[in-house]
Design goal:
The complex is a heterodimer of chains A (353) and B (526).
Chain A: H1 14-47, H2 63-92, E1 99-106, E2 109-116, E3 123-126, H3 132-135, E4 153-156, E5 161-167, E6 172-176, E7 181-185, E8 191-195, E9 201-207, E10 220-225, H4 227-244, H5 254-268, H6 270-273, H7 291-294, H8 297-306, H9 322-333, H10 346-352
Parallel strand pairs in A: 1-5, 4-10
Antiparallel strand pairs in A: 1-2, 2-3, 5-8, 6-7, 6-9, 9-10
Chain B: H1 8-11, H2 20-25, H3 29-57, H4 68-103, H5 111-119, H6 121-130, H7 149-152, H8 155-184, H9 197-228, H10 242-259, H11 262-276, H12 283-296, H13 312-340, H14 349-372, H15 374-380, H16 384-414, H17 420-447, H18 461-490
The chains are: A alpha+beta (353), B mainly alpha (526).
The complex binds protoporphyrin IX containing FE and copper (II) ion (CU) (2 copies).
One copper (II) ion is lined by residues 254, 257, 300, 303-304 of chain B.
């Protein structure tokens, strides 16, 4: 990995380059002023000591000096503000994108919907892929520790990509330093930002707004690829999406639902309710032995579909398909210490929506 | 200036209840000042323990010491405890001790209210620290408590909200007291423009407090009603807006950072002339600079929100306004340097801290200017660069100034000179370890390490290890201060009334230690 360790990451977009250069410029100006001011101070500390026989002068108040040290900084600031203004305006110009992608922050993963342009219709959910054994030291840490995901965002090089951000639960922020992009994802609102990568490569970032327990574990991985590779990737994704589309009216048996449900649970619920169903009480209640999970199914369907207002329990109705929800509910009702024996069908979920 | 101190005041000490009741019922500004400072030092140590736990977890990549959930509780409570428990009450303690002594008043204007404003603090602290032990633990939404995350929290959040209400009431009462004291109780002849700068900066700070503490109370109250009473201030589904919370919070929050630094400017402006044996270079321009910083501080709040997606004009306005604040701040630094220039300098402990303050605080000022530039800030906000920046202004700024002031006025408070040798060791250890801790955080932030995370990617490992070592060094260095305090209270070289050769001002006309009652007959200032 060639990332810088002491400076901003190597920029790969026009905006990120402007930011990089602006920072360098400001750093130099600040250092010059710093050295000048503290040069004076340290000379004074060195030379004007009582122990060296210095006798205090008695000057004070000098209008000329005071005007100078007010006006000169104002001029320097104007010089700094000028390039910054141009960049601010450029960053805000999200018009005429080639591809528009919606990034949704969830506790604690990112969802991407390709809304417009080549790839329209592709959807992915992007989870941290670093195994938990690496976190607690049972396994050596990989090169991209905490910066790797199962399904990266893929975009073509040289195209203007507009990212719409929003969130499902709390505020998150979509940040990829090398692309010069950081935009808060606010639940209930849509914000936008854009980038045009000049170089192919893999660029990594993080969620940059505290969003709860696993805020440190929802990275962003962007693959910038050539136009051909992008087209191939889109075709492959679309094919896979079509193949895995479920027949909403299919009647499933319990065993198949449980197998599918376990996967859905691991990807969507285990962060809070834990793989063993014991939760992390009192913040995240156990599902193992829960009255809701063992009680009438309609109450549980309601909880999972609509969430619980004002708590971390989100409404999964918008995120998951009827089949996935049916599967995960069936799984939770028939695993650990829960044995209701019921198989919930996708049609029941559709009816409850 | 001359003080008239009737002889009978010298010997007597105190009448009224003794033991614990003395402290609970006291209305004496010196007693109350002392209690404020002891309280804030205890809070400083508790906040410090949390900081060191955070740093221990971040020593190496991986999760070793605490779990993410608890980590977030620690950062949140560390921030709240340091800001509201350590720094703010410490300055109020200084104000209590020093303002009456410096303006020749016999006490604070509202002595009973003064007692009440202090005694509100311990219950608030118990609520805050106690929240670690309730189900769900302490609030973990960051010291900024952004909605809707704060709406998700458990009952620790309600305790924090209640604690903030109480501390806010305490601050407002303290501030009213200071305003009235400064405006009405100055000794005859002490015009506003003859007043020591410490009193000026506190007067302006008090106005800021009165203006913004109610705003914070409003913000957290809205969180409270969103949590429990079905309102939707910050919930889009009910017609609210999560970003509204940030606007209200930072309308309080930015002036708040000046609340924590203006009195520090005041302390430094007292110390530098004393040890340069030369009057402050530009007294009037210092007063005007303080006032302009205070006024501008109301127009810059959204520089904390550059990534929320404000329109370009909004970003530009807040960028320009923020850059403008650099001008009066620069004026202050130039003034201090000009005061030292061609003085007759000595470097007793207070002056060491003050000089160190100017040096490190200015680094924090420059990184602040860099953060003011919206496009750069969009890269840096919520990274370790910001953590570095605000610790340079809060630790190297507010905290170093508090130490400078403590070493400067300890002779007046205790009647003994503080141990110079230990004081200097305390300074040099703090200075070195402070920079080892926080300087590498600039690099971490630039290279892309987010803040408020319990674990990080491998390329950040070296600087994190360094920061943790520095933090433990810094933490243990503060124990030296405890030794200095105990030694100074117990004994040591007797301090003269004018403890420092170059010191001016009314506080140096009363004996050391300052008797329980001073200036019962107002001195006349010529
Ligand atoms: C012993 C010295 C200190 C050390 C080692 C230290 C360390 C830290 C660390 C590691 C963080 C967490 C950063 C993050 O994860 O985002 C933090 C946050 C913070 N610190 Fe300190 N700190 C110290 C003293 C202070 C003091 C004196 C203040 C005074 C006001 C202060 C104010 C804050 C604030 C406001 C935060 C932000 C909390 C948040 O993210 O919500 N710190 N500090
Ligand atoms: Cu986050
Ligand atoms: Cu601010």
């Amino acid at each position: 990995m060639a990332e810088s360790r002491v400076n901003l990451q190597q920029p790969v977009t026009q905006i990120a380059t402007e930011i990089y250069d602006m920072h360098t410029l400001m750093l130099v100006i600040c250092m010059v002023i710093f050295i000048a001011v503290f040069g004076v101070m340290f000379w004074s500390v060195f030379a004007h000591r009582k122990s060296k026989g210095a006798v205090a002068a008695h000057f004070h108040e000098n209008t000329t000096v005071e005007i100078v040290w007010t006006v000169v900084p104002v001029l320097i600031l104007l010089g700094m503000a000028y390039p910054a203004t141009k960049t601010v305006i450029a960053m805000k110009d999200t018009s005429n994108p080639d591809i528009t992608i919606k990034a949704t922050g969830y506790q604690w993963k990112w969802g991407y919907d390709y809304l417009k342009g080549e790839g329209e219709g592709v959807k992915l959910i992007s989870n941290l892929s670093t195994p938990s054994e690496q976190l607690d030291g049972r396994q050596a840490k990989g090169d991209n520790y905490l910066l790797e995901v199962d399904q990266p965002l893929v975009v073509p090089v040289g195209k203007k990509i507009r990212i719409l951000t929003t969130a499902n639960d709390v505020i998150h922020a979509w940040w990829v330093p090398a692309l010069g992009v950081k935009q808060d994802a606010i639940p209930g609102f849509i914000r936008d930002t854009w980038f045009r990568a000049d170089k192919e490569g893999v660029f990594r970032g993080n969620c940059a707004e505290l969003c709860g327990k696993d805020h440190g574990f929802m990275p962003i991985e962007v693959h910038v690829v050539s136009a051909e590779k992008y087209a191939a990737w889109v075709a492959e994704k679309k094919g896979a999406q079509a193949a895995s589309a479920d027949d909403p009216n299919k009647v499933w048996d319990l065993a198949d639902l449980k197998v599918r449900g376990e996967k859905v649970f691991a990807a969507n619920c285990a962060a809070c309710h834990q793989a063993d169903g014991k939760g992390l009480p009192p913040a995240f209640p156990p599902l193992d032995g829960s009255a809701v999970v063992q009680g009438p199914k309609i109450a549980q369907i309601d909880t999972v579909l609509k969430g619980r207002e004002g708590t971390a329990m989100a409404a999964f109705g918008k995120q998951l398909s009827d089949t996935d929800i049916a599967a995960v509910i069936t799984y939770t009702r028939n695993t650990w210490g829960n044995h209701t024996g019921e198989a919930i069908q996708p049609t029941e979920i559709a009816a409850a929506r | 200036m001359a003080a008239v101190i009737p002889d009978h005041l010298h010997d007597h000490h105190h009448h009224g209840p003794t033991g614990l009741m003395r402290w609970i019922t006291t209305t004496n500004h010196k007693d109350i000042g002392t209690m404020y400072m002891i309280f804030s030092f205890i809070m400083f140590l508790s906040g410090g323990v949390m900081a060191l736990t955070i740093r221990a977890e971040l020593f190496q990549p991986g999760l070793q010491v605490v779990q993410p959930e608890f980590f977030n509780q620690l950062t949140s409570m560390h921030g709240l405890v340091m800001v509201f428990g350590a720094i703010m009450p410490a300055f109020v303690g200084f104000a209590n001790w020093q303002i009456p002594l410096m303006i020749g008043a016999s006490d604070m204007a509202f002595a009973r209210m003064n007692n009440w404003s202090f005694w509100l603090l311990p219950p608030a602290a118990i609520l805050l620290l106690g929240s670690f032990f309730v189900p769900g633990g302490a609030m973990a939404a960051g010291w900024t408590m952004y909605a809707p995350l704060s709406v998700q929290m458990g009952m620790g959040m309600d305790m924090a909200i209640f604690a903030i209400h109480i501390m806010g009431i305490s601050s407002i009462m303290g501030a009213i007291n200071i305003v009235v004291t400064v405006l009405n109780m100055r000794a005859p002849g002490m015009t506003m423009m003859k007043m020591p700068l410490f009193c000026w900066t506190w007067l302006i700070t008090a106005y800021l407090l009165i203006a913004v503490m109610p705003v914070l109370a409003g913000a957290v109250t809205m969180v409270l009603t969103d949590r429990h009473f079905g309102t939707s201030f910050f919930n889009a589904a009910g017609g609210g807006d999560p970003v509204l919370y940030q606007h209200v919070f930072w309308f309080f929050g930015h002036p708040e950072v000046y609340i924590m630094i203006l009195p520090a400017f005041g302390i430094i402006s007292e110390i530098i002339p004393t040890f340069a044996r030369k009057p402050l270079f530009g007294y009037a321009s210092m007063v005007y600079a303080t006032a302009s910083i205070a006024i501008l501080s109301f127009t810059v709040w959204a520089h904390h929100m550059f990534t929320t997606g404000m329109p370009a004009v909004g970003q530009l306005f807040f960028m320009y306004a923020t850059m403008l604040i650099a001008v009066p701040t620069g004026v202050k630094v130039f003034n201090w340097v000009a005061t030292m220039w061609r003085g007759s300098l000595t470097f007793e402990t207070p002056m060491l801290w003050a000089t160190g303050f100017i040096f490190v605080f200015t680094i924090g000022g420059f990184t602040g200017l860099i953060c003011a530039v919206a496009p750069i800030d969009i890269q840096l906000q919520d990274t370790y660069y910001v953590v570095a920046h605000f610790h340079y202004v809060l630790v190297a700024g507010s905290l170093f100034a508090l130490f400078a002031g403590a070493y400067y006025w300890l002779p007046k408070w205790t009647g003994h000179m503080a141990d110079e040798r230990l004081g200097k060791i305390h300074f040099w250890c703090s200075m070195v370890f402070f920079n080892i801790t926080f300087f590498p955080m600039h690099f971490l932030g630039l290279a892309g390490m987010p803040r408020r995370i319990p674990d990080y990617a491998l390329q950040f490992a070296d600087f994190n290890a360094m920061a943790t070592i520095g933090a433990f060094g810094f933490g243990f260095s503060q124990l030296i201060f405890i030794v200095v305090l105990v030694k100074c209270v117990k004994g040591g070289e007797k301090a003269a009334a004018r403890a420092w050769e170059g010191a001016h001002g009314l506080e140096w006309t009363v004996p050391s230690p300052a008797p329980h009652h001073t200036f019962e007959v107002p001195p006349v200032v010529k």
